[in-house]
Design goal:
This is Endonuclease III-like protein 1. InterPro entries: DNA_glycosylase, Endonuclease-III-like_CS2, Endonuclease3_FeS-loop_motif, Endouclease-III_FeS-bd_BS, HhH-GPD_domain, HhH_base_excis_C, HhH_motif, NTH1. One of its GO terms (cellular component) is mitochondrion. The protein is mainly α. Helix 11 packs across helix 12. The termini are far apart.
Length: 350
């Protein structure tokens, strides 16, 4: 066969091909059609040579010189090209990726436990020695003989009144207690209750009479106005009762966050937050119970609620208020009589 009359196609075998099929040495050749014959020796390993004779009478494309020389020496095998309809189609083979192992830690919910469970807890700041300081304050307050223990808001309402009236009296006593000693607040509440302390009775009392009844509480003129405005709102919107949420309580004229949290605790029996007055604010800063010094009772409340266990929120107000009334005074605190004198940063600085 003339080398010039043969069209050669070279397919190079690849180690990881996805669409080519190669015949290597030792594999059985495809059957030939009539009039075609294989010639030459076997192809070198890794190469497959196919040939096709022009059937339309035109001269096939000339072979390169190196191909012609190889055919003349009989160094390559010539295999006819299979018809298009007989060729096998091959789809690419998808290689599976190696799976990566992931380690997942789950936070155990309440009641869950066991070996191997990872508990993810964010570290929380707590003041140094605060539990020992709190136990010492409990010991010093065990007598329950401070003014707040007998004259606080939980002692100023009429126990024989209806629940709605009792809640109103609790709120009124808290409004009077701002910037006022407990003894003065208790005296004003006794005078008001003697006239029948209800929403209707307060609204029927003129301002001058109401001022005389609550005097000498701090800021008594402003409190007369606030009491009248709040009582009117309670009558119109709450049927004479008080709101049952902090947000609604602080919206009332003359009611601040401390009063709202105490009203929720005393009137509704719900712990909504820590009630912080001037005593709690002062003592918390002296004991360094806040990350940094705070400038207002409301700022102190937020700082305490960040770390103090919630089960202690209801106790902390009465405990620290009485401690501030008897021992940790605003001026000339009685540090020598305090069990925390070795643990209190403020006492060490004196």
């Amino acid at each position: 066969m003339n080398a010039a009359g043969v069209r050669m196609v070279v397919t190079r075998a690849r180690s990881r091909g996805t669409g080519a099929s190669l015949r290597r040495r030792g594999e059985k050749a495809a059957p030939l059609r009539s009039g075609e014959a294989a010639a030459g020796s076997a192809a070198p390993e890794g190469l497959l040579w196919d040939s096709a004779i022009s059937e339309d009478g035109r001269a096939p494309a000339p072979c390169p010189a190196w191909m012609s020389a190889g055919l003349a020496r009989g160094g390559f095998s010539q295999t006819p090209k299979a018809p298009r309809e007989e060729r096998k189609s091959y789809s690419p083979v998808k290689r599976r990726r190696k799976a990566q192992r992931l380690s997942v830690a789950y936070e155990a919910s309440e009641g869950e436990g066991g070996e191997g469970a990872e508990h993810l807890q964010a570290p929380s700041w707590q003041p140094q020695d605060w539990r020992q300081q709190l136990d010492n304050i409990r010991t010093m307050r065990s007598g329950k003989d401070a003014p707040v223990d007998q004259l606080g808001a939980e002692h100023c309402f009429d126990p024989s009144a209806s629940p709605k009236v009792r809640r109103y009296q609790v709120l009124l006593s808290l409004m009077l207690s701002s910037q006022t000693k407990d003894q003065v607040t208790a005296g004003a509440m006794q005078r008001l209750r003697a006239r029948g302390l209800t929403v209707d009775s307060i609204l029927q009392t003129d301002d001058s009479t109401l001022g005389a009844l609550i005097y000498p509480v701090g800021f008594w003129r402003s409190k007369v106005k606030y009491i009248k405005q709040t009582s009117a709102i309670l009558q119109q919107r709450y049927d004479g009762d008080i709101p049952a949420s902090v947000a609604e309580l602080v919206a009332l004229p003359g009611v601040g966050p401390k009063m709202a949290h105490l009203a929720m605790a005393v009137a509704w029996g719900t712990v909504s937050g820590i009630a912080v007055d001037t005593h709690v604010h002062r003592i918390a800063n002296r004991l360094r119970w806040t990350k940094k010094a705070t400038k207002s009772p409301e700022e102190t409340r937020r700082a305490l609620e960040e770390w103090l266990p919630r089960e202690l929120w209801s106790e902390i107000n009465g405990l620290l208020v009485g401690f501030g009334q008897q021992t940790c005074l605003p001026i000339r605190p009685r540090c020598q009589a305090c069990l925390n004198r070795a643990l209190c940063p403020a006492a060490r600085g004196l």
